[in-house]
Design goal:
The protein is mainly α. The protein is built from 24 helices and no strands. The longest helix has 38 residues, at 437-474. The model is unreliable at 1-22, 27-53 and 544-560 (pLDDT under 50).
Amino acid sequence: MKSVINGHGGQLSKDWRVHSMFRRVGQRAGIAPSSCHNAWISMNSTSPTQRPGGRSERLVLASICLAAIVLPLSFSGGAIATPDIARTLGGSPTALTWITNAFMLSFGSLLMAAGALADQYGRKRVFAGGMSLFVVSTILLALAPSVLWLDVLRALQGVAAAASLASGSAALAQEFEGHARMRAFGLLGTSFGLGLAFGPVIAGMLIAWLGWRAIFVFIAGVACLAMIFGLPRMRETRDPGASGLDWPGTLCFTAMLVLLTFGIIQAPASGRDSPLIIALLGGAGVLLVVFVIIEARVARPMLDLSLFRYPRFIGVQMLPVGTCYCYIVLVVLLPLRLIGIEGWGEMRAGLFMLALSAPMLFMPLVASRLAHRVSPGALSALGFLAAAAGLCWLARISFEGAAFSALLPLFLIGMGAGLPWGLMDGLAVSVVPKERAGMATGIFSTTRVAGEGIALASVSATLAWIIQSGLTRMAMASPHVVATASQQLATGELHRASTLLTQLPAADIRWIYAQAFTHLLLGLAAITVICATVVFSVIGGSEERASMKVAGGEAADPSP
């Protein structure tokens, strides 16, 4: 490390602020911890004569930004398409739930592994393989004959997305230096924001005009453009000191997430006390213990668990938890309600979702500006409280008719969630010593993406249980029929639930769903308030503002 700094006239130390911005924005893009650190070193050890021309750099940047746009579109597009998929292919409620969860599960659990493989075998090679697999799996999704094939291919698409994002972000870091690098990663973050904000609109228009299969054709086309423009001009880079992948830890962690997610999703259908659910959740607990033992013993662990001795680092992990429960779950559940329960068209629902997602285009920037004057921890807590207020407000709104009254609470939720969203990447590295920042971003990235999948599964299961409780009191049907109808309603299948509950009018079923959704929103608000309390208590001090200003210039104090 010292030779790299001396060999380039101290550029790394002089550009430490840029390095920190690179780490924060790069982590948001899903770079594995070793990728963030080693990519910076390799960039600063590359001579100017080795760098490509400006046009090639811009084309590589455009290529990776295109890839960044389609990834959130893949996430939100699947949610918007679920009701139309159910109408054309059928499928059980559990299978329909996996359309979104399979993608999030494989994507979140393999991000760090993909970054380690990119360091070892080459970023361009892994990016090419990941994008190729992404295009092939997405085309096959457009041709899927059943929901089962959709679930399998969505999991494969998540694997490809993890490889593409981790390696592509690290490869992008090779193409720019200094402030140009900071601007490049700023554009990458903006691309994610664009995909997240306008994904529901694009998906809604495609479904309305051409059907749900058009979403995957569109995504595959954009991904092909990214490959055509970027791959021929991208340089191959790797980490000469990479020691390979922590295979036992990776496999154990992935298996644990699979069992946990499957157990949560299956619980409403099988019952919380069924032997299958007990075995799945118990197996997940056992694998978690085994994973901790493995990571404590290997030389280069997937996750360095010693970082959890820093109380403020534990507090930072509450930031993605809060944003999952106040924002991410609504990105999936609200379109299901609008399209499947309220009978809205996909295009109208997509436009309506802009009220929730549009603040993500500007609130992270506002948060970064305010963080120079206010503690980032306090700002994040304030954002969570605003989002919780929006959730409580939304719980009082009826979605019948035009539902314009729901726009303001949705906008408030988006604005509130945007404050911690724009700060948590910097906080993740500011609360630990700077030499541990790479591993800290890796743990945070894993918590963030894997937590989204767990949050989606748990909230969907909770909604089904609340609906089941309401139906049990009003419907004269067997427990099995009530449980099945509850799951169908939780996935937005009002028509199929009505065919099971023939003794209940559709208006009564819709009312039961609305009451359940109201209770769910209040529960999400309570979780968000808890996250705000923990965040303010643990990382709300003014010292966090100073540590973010230097962005790792001093070692963080491990005390609370």
